[in-house]
Write a structure and sequence with these properties.
With about 400 residues, this protein is of the alpha/beta class. The chain has 17 helices and twelve strands. The chain has an eight-stranded parallel beta sheet with strand order 4-11-10-9-8-7-6-5. Helix 6 runs parallel beside helix 12. The longest helix has 22 residues. The protein starts with 8 loop residues before the first helix and ends in a 7-residue tail after the last strand. The structure holds ligand FNR. The site of ligand FNR has 24 residues, from helix 2 and helix 16.
């Protein structure tokens, strides 16, 4: 790669990989079972091609969006990711700080390393909070209240994780929380003792494997053992159904989104439950392997919600400015990035996350000019060719 800085998101990933111990790195890269859905997420962006509007004056381009009445300087939001403290001691402070500087949203995972209260104290936001669907009202109500007290502007309920995905990759690398030397990981540790030592120091210097919200709520919300990686199912209580979503709707006054929507039927059900937005997502391919690519699921969700005023976001496989434009053309108001911001964090802490956002924003601005669009709201289905095989 010579002396050139990271040119794109894949370069940031390569830096993170080079610097990191393989155990935490492969946790971020990991996906469920055969990675079919994860690969599909990435490939779908190549299958959709662009149709520019040339002969447009694109001197003044504006990549801002309006979401729930707030203007954001970017259509790229940071997705909730659990326990970034295992990548870098600054964890969410780096992600939320970079998001704030870029004028976009940072979504605090229920399984965050630093508590949402501490993140809000350090980072002016906008912050959203993501809730996992485990247990009953006693498990999740304290988290909804905590998010409200911390000033989070929207609540995201992740529906695709009643139990943990089958991440065989994590088992093979010997990634466990807390870290344990095992037959699976001994080879890696012995080959790269410097990286392993750096990782252990990272864990000691920051929140490590702690989950900040547990101490503040006094309840685990089903998270007491999120990262006994191989024993997910045994610990989660998958009892969250329509009644629980209705209760969350009553508890939360602000914008409510559900994350993990991949079909028109699910989108309609969510709408009927009174949500304000849906996130078309398959959890980055980390939950049910066999789900369609997020981009491929987007058109049917957009059609199902057309005219209802429900906001649509998409995540899964966003690595380029053109990926963002394709998702917006097919009906998303905004997108989220999961792995990319965590790679930036692992590579260089806060400046690494800044770099990820700067790369995407530079690409988006250039791509808008090349596409002949001045504002992101101008984008529509006429700007893309979708494979005929995508009909639903
Ligand atoms: C996640 N994701 C996730 N989602 C969620 O709702 N709550 C969470 O705590 C987490 N944790 C988490 C950790 C890590 C390391 C990753 C990579 C992902 C899923 C995340 O929000 C998002 O849906 C995907 O990451 C999007 O796909 P890309 O951008 O990673 O391809």
């Amino acid at each position: 790669r010579g002396g050139v800085g990271p040119l794109n998101i894949d370069d940031v990933r390569a830096r993170a990989r080079k610097r990191s111990c393989a155990l935490p790195f492969s946790y971020v890269d990991s996906a469920a079972e055969d990675f079919a859905t994860h690969r599909a997420n990435l490939r779908a962006f190549d299958e959709v091609t662009l149709r520019p509007d040339l002969l447009t004056d694109v001197r003044d381009r504006d990549r801002s969006i309006t979401l729930f009445g707030r203007t954001l300087a970017s259509p790229v939001l940071l997705a909730p990711t659990g326990m970034p403290g295992i990548q870098h001691a600054d964890a969410e402070f780096a992600g939320a700080g970079a998001a704030h500087a870029a004028g976009t949203v940072f979504t605090v995972s229920m399984a965050s390393s630093h508590s949402v209260t501490r993140i809000a104290e350090r980072c002016p936001g906008p912050l959203w909070f993501q809730l996992y669907p485990w247990g009953n009202a006693d498990d999740f109500t304290p988290y909804v209240e905590l998010a409200a007290r911390a000033g989070c502007e929207a609540l995201v309920v992740t529906l695709d994780t009643p139990v943990g995905g089958n991440r065989e990759a994590d088992i093979r690398t010997g990634f466990t929380m807390p870290p344990r030397l095992s037959r699976a990981n001994a080879g890696e540790v012995l080959r790269h003792p410097v990286r392993f030592g750096r990782w252990i120091r990272t864990l000691a210097a920051g929140p490590g494997i702690a989950m900040g919200n547990i101490a503040e709520t006094g309840v685990t919300g089903g998270m007491n053992a999120v990262h006994q990686a191989t024993k997910f199912e045994a610990k989660f209580v998958p009892g969250f159904s329509a009644a629980e979503l209705a209760l969350v709707r009553r508890l939360w006054d602000g914008p409510l989104l559900v994350k993990g929507i991949t079909t028109a039927e699910q989108a309609r059900r969510a709408r009927a439950a009174g949500v304000d937005g849906v996130i078309v997502s398959n959890h980055g391919g980390r939950q049910l392997d066999g789900l369609p690519a997020s981009l491929r699921a987007l058109p049917e969700v957009a059609e199902a919600l057309d005219g209802t005023g429900t906001e649509i976001l998409l995540d899964g496989g966003i690595r380029r400015g053109t990926d963002v434009l394709k998702a917006l053309a097919l009906g998303a108001r905004a997108v989220m990035i999961g792995r990319p911001w965590v790679w930036g964090l692992a590579a260089a802490g806060r400046p690494g996350v800044d770099t990820v956002l700067r790369i995407l924003h530079t690409e988006i601005e250039r791509d808008m000019a090349l596409m002949g669009v001045r504002t992101l709201a101008d984008l529509g289905p006429r700007h893309v060719n979708v494979p005929a095989a995508w009909a639903y």
